[in-house]
């Protein structure tokens, strides 16, 4: 079972009020070194078996049609999730809760349809 | 005169929109997001609310609902469509209207009686207004900031496709950070109109800030009756 990661960010010229809110909270916690925060979205698309070129091509198409709005957002990355790397590095483990949060709306969407 | 009102999962103002249609003399026809069937209506309203929970992006999932498979080509062919609030977001996600709606610049949810100037009275939905007329209707949104690149904004203004503009406050600010104070726009043909404020909440004495919303519904009803008479 393989997974593909799609990362989407607001275009640099589009105002990011959520990022600003996060940016405003950081100094209150003593994190003073960050001059700007931009908040994006990460999608993890899981497939049966290993990820093929067809899966990747479909993921890129989904990224451009549904997962992002090209008027305001850029697809910054579509790549195969490297599970072994995720197990080894603490930085990637920190990504895991964000992936779970992304999964939630998708589940609800299926329920509604 | 039959005006369809689409209900998506999470639509909020579909019943108010249908009521406004009836109050102004039209017949409201409920349309269902899961049916690719417009039931032969003369016009369609995409109502306000939080379709599909506003997950992903506002209007992004609704845009791919079966009813939109019928609506998008019909709108391109000239069927009058009005998108209110979430409906406006659905229209931009469908690329029936340019630009996008993002979170309000001040990050708070708006709920105010909002003054607007009607700039374009040649659309199917605004012919009962006078150019430059100021109207007051309800504005309630969290993600109502209209954005587009400079070229698109220039095109919209150059072609007279800015239909409504917010009257800015004393500090020169509009309620959600919309570029160039844009509250509503139309497509080239003038049959598709989207706006963030809610005309359906201003059609009845005793409810809402005015009766200014009636003009939207009386415009389309007259428009459709006239085109039926000449057809």
A few lines on this structure:
The complex is a heterodimer of chains A (113) and B (231). Chain A has 113 residues and is an alpha+beta fold.
How does this model look, in words?
The complex is a heterodimer of chains A (113) and B (231). With 113 residues, chain A is of the alpha+beta class. Chain A has one domain (2-12, 40-112). Helices cover 45% and strands 21% of the residues of chain A. Chain A is built from 5 helices and 3 strands; from the N terminus they run E-H-E-H-E-H-H-H. Chain A has helices at 17-25, 53-67, 83-88, 90-93, 96-112; strands spanning 2-10, 41-47, 73-80. A 3-stranded antiparallel sheet of chain A has the order 2-1-3. Chain A is flat, with a radius of gyration of 16 Å. Chain B has one domain (2-230): Rossmann fold (3-Layer(aba) Sandwich). In chain B, strand 1 (2-7), helix 1 and strand 2 (27-32) form a beta-alpha-beta unit. Chain B is α/β, with parallel strands linked by helices and 231 residues long. Chain B is built from 5 helices and 11 strands. The model of chain B has no long low-confidence stretch (mean pLDDT 96). The A-B interface holds A 10, 13-15, 17-18, 20-21, 66-67, 69, 71-72, 105-106, 108-109, 112-113 and B 9-10, 34, 52-53, 55-57, 60-61, 64, 92-93, 98-100, 102-107, 145, 147-149, 177.
């Amino acid at each position: 079972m393989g997974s593909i990661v799609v990362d989407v960010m607001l275009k640099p010229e589009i105002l990011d009020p959520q990022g600003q809110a996060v940016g405003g909270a950081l100094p209150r916690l003593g994190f003073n070194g960050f001059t700007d925060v931009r908040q994006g979205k990460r999608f993890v698309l899981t497939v049966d078996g290993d990820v093929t070129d067809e899966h990747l091509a479909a993921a890129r198409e989904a990224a451009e049609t549904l997962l992002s709005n090209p008027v305001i957002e850029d697809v910054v990355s579509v790549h195969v999730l490297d599970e072994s790397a995720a197990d080894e590095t603490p930085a990637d483990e920190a990504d895991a809760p964000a992936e779970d949060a992304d999964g939630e709306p998708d589940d609800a969407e299926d329920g509604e349809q | 005169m039959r005006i369809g009102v689409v209900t998506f999962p999470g639509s909020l103002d579909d019943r108010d929109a249908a009521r406004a249609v009836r109050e102004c003399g039209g017949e409201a026809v409920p349309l269902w997001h899961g049916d690719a069937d417009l039931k032969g209506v003369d016009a369609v309203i995409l109502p306000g609310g939080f379709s599909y929970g506003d997950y992903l992006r506002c209007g992004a999932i609704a845009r791919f609902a079966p009813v939109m498979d019928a609506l998008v080509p019909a709108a391109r062919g000239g069927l009058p469509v009005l998108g209110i609030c979430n409906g406006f977001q659905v229209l931009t996600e469908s690329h029936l209207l340019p630009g996008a709606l993002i979170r309000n610049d001040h990050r708070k949810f708006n709920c105010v009686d909002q003054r607007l100037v009607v700039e374009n009275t040649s659309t199917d939905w605004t012919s009962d207004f006078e150019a430059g007329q100021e109207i007051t209707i309800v504005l309630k949104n969290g993600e109502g900031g209209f954005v587009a690149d400079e070229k698109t904004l220039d095109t919209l203004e150059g072609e007279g496709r800015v239909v409504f503009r917010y009257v800015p406050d004393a500090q020169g600010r509009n309620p959600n950070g919309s570029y160039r104070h844009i509250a509503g726009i139309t497509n080239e043909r003038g049959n598709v109109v989207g706006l963030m404020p809610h005309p359906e909440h201003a059609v009845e004495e005793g409810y809402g800030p005015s009766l200014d919303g009636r003009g939207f519904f009386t415009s389309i009803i007259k428009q459709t009756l006239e085109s039926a008479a000449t057809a």
